[in-house]
Amino acid sequence: MSDADFRDRLRAVDDPALDTDIVSAGLVTDITVDDGTAAVELALGAPHAPDEAAIAERVREVADDAGIDVELSANVPLFDAAESSVLPGVKNVIAVASGKGGVGKSTVAVNLAAGLADRGANVGLFDADVYGPNVPQMLGADTDPDVTTVDGEDRIEPPTAHELKLMSVGLLIDDDDPVVWRGPVAQNTLTDLFDDVSWGSLDYLVVDLPPGTGDVQLTVLQNLPVTGTVVVTTPQSVAVGDTRRGVQMFGEYQTNVLGVVENMSGFVCPSCGDTHDIFGEDGGRTLADAVDVPYLGSLPLDPAIRAGADDGEPIVSGDGDTAVAFQDLAATVADKVGVLRRHHQQQQRDSASD
Ligand SMILES: Nc1ncnc2c1ncn2[C@@H]1O[C@H](COP(=O)(O)OP(=O)(O)OP(=O)(O)O)[C@@H](O)[C@H]1O
Hints:
Pfam families: FeS_assembly_P (PF01883), ParA (PF10609). The chain is of the alpha/beta class. The chain has helices at about 5-10, 50-65, 105-120, 135-140, 185-195, 215-225, 235-250, 285-290, 305-310, 320-354; strands at about 30-35, 35-45, 70-75, 90-100, 125, 145-150, 155, 160, 165-170, 200-210, 230-235, 255-270, 275, 295-300.
């Protein structure tokens, strides 16, 4: 079978999100059929995302039907050339943000990162919440990072906790030190940390931003190649109002918003079994609709989440409905990252053929 014949057969593989097949979308970037084996390179951006795993599986089925073996490889369609020069080994940077404090942003960041790692991805977690770096505690991590010297430059080796490479100013300061850095110091500290950590090769780097829309958040958006942002809100209307401002800020900095997740939705009462909407109903969905970004789902108000955080055990890695809600979030976020990357590839392809 010729390369062109096999490429034609791959038109039977639909992209679940792009409303077309993978060949028409420009996702088959290289194909060589030789001696009963097809080497196929696909423009896929989100390792271990359900949709992209399904695409790869369909390609294997088509090869099987054609009676040939297939070797698949993936290359990430980059948004721009600059993306590969900052954090070159990191495929995707996902920022987790909230318009106001205390809505569960760090909880979402930790469980999103652990959920992606549980799916098999290589994941790093960067706690950029310089004013309240509580991520290490949520993962039970208190190992000081090692510093190695490479070509005369100090490199910080991030410790590993729950299969995640972790970095936080919380690992670099004493527990009793109040973090009282003013804006410029906080920004410089962060910028230095970005540059000095050796993340190695990662599928996803999850960044826990400080709450709100201040200078530190802007520093991250301006200095890191953020693939997209997950915005956390509670159903309460004031949180929704603050979040709307956050979403607007990302728009101004041309940062993609992957979607809004609603945390602390209905409380399932352990004694009566009823669900109580303590913070109101449907705030997250209303917000997502109002600012025209995807709704990523809701996470229940469950005391086990706080207990897991206190014990350094992310709830996503356990069993039960709440764990499944976080597992679903990780899968949905990975799929949204994949859609952004593949959609970009499709646009490149369309503009090249104009
Ligand atoms: N869905 C939930 N159910 C129960 N407890 C939760 C839930 N989400 C978060 N919490 C608890 O609420 C507290 C605040 O959560 P977290 O630190 O994640 O919020 P945050 O938005 O990151 O806060 P900050 O503004 O301080 O950065 C923690 O004790 C956490 O365990």
